[in-house]
Design goal:
Elements lengths: L11 H6 L12 E3 L8 E4 L3 H4 L17 E5 L2 H13 L9 E5 L6 H8 L5 E7 L3 H10 L16 E4 L3 H9 L1 H10 L3 H8 L9 H9 L5 H12 L7 H10 L1
Parallel strand pairs: 3-4, 3-5, 5-6
Antiparallel strand pairs: 1-2
Length: 248
């Protein structure tokens, strides 16, 4: 083990609590610029126990003062899609007190619920079907829904995507529509090169599209926004429509 680094607990529950904050929507680690122009160095990682303790968490720069409803989504591409669609539907989220927070991964939902639970805001969001257990565990952790309860998560403001939000949007716009969008972005040749890779040849076009948008930094967020921008408003995916209706 490297000297000077705090060891993580070996207990799985403690590991979950002690997860390090990496998401841009979460509190940043304590940083110091290295000498002679070297890259910044992390002096002491800030654990979520420290960052989200009710007495120490600083929400400045995370929650707007006017926020009354928080929508939790997994990543920045989901946030971009929700905000773009809301704008197209004429829903001024800021004016309505609605803020969309990207959690940097569904496993962080429990930490967000704990941190936001005493802030006097309504909490809801979107999640992927395969990761529903994390939502249930998080809601149980803050007393919003006992683990063994049968209350539908939709009653609590959480709406499930069949695979993920990108898949919902791809199915709504159609493969041809998405390929036309990629062409408009000037990246059709890049997608065709990906299709020709040995590992991609046996996959469906939908699977290849998923791989493509996640294969380059910033691309997933950009296409999340662009898919929502060109989506026909009579084909809005059910969970996306439902979460915006609930929030507004």
């Amino acid at each position: 083990m490297c000297s000077g680094r705090t060891p993580l607990p070996t207990n799985p529950d403690q590991q979950d609590i002690y997860s390090i904050v990496y998401s841009a929507t979460q509190l940043s680690s304590t940083m110091k610029q290295g000498q002679h122009g070297s890259s910044p160095k992390i002096l002491r990682p800030v654990s979520l126990v420290e960052a989200y303790h009710p007495g120490t968490m600083n929400l400045a720069g995370v929650l707007a003062a006017s926020t009354s409803t928080v929508l939790l989504v997994e990543g920045e591409s989901d946030r971009a899609a929700v905000e773009m669609l809301a704008a197209r539907l004429g829903l001024p989220l800021d004016d309505l007190g609605v803020q969309v927070l990207a959690m940097g991964g569904i496993t962080n939902i429990g930490h967000h619920l704990v941190a936001l639970g005493d802030q006097g805001v309504r909490l809801g969001g979107l999640y992927d079907a395969a990761e529903e257990r994390f939502v249930i565990k998080g809601l149980d952790r803050v007393g919003l829904r006992p683990f063994a309860a049968t209350t539908p998560l939709t009653d609590l403001g959480f709406f499930r995507c069949d695979r993920d939000l990108e898949d919902e949007l791809i199915r709504a716009i159609g493969i041809d529509g998405f390929l036309a969008l990629i062409d408009d972005e000037g990246e059709l040749r890049s997608f065709e090169r990906l299709q020709g890779q040995p590992a991609q040849r046996e996959r469906t076009t939908t699977q290849q599209l998923h791989r493509f948008i996640g294969s380059k930094g910033g691309r997933k967020e950009r296409y999340g926004r662009r898919l929502a921008e060109v989506l026909p408003l009579d084909r809005v995916p059910a969970p996306l429509d439902a979460v915006l209706r609930w929030a507004t």
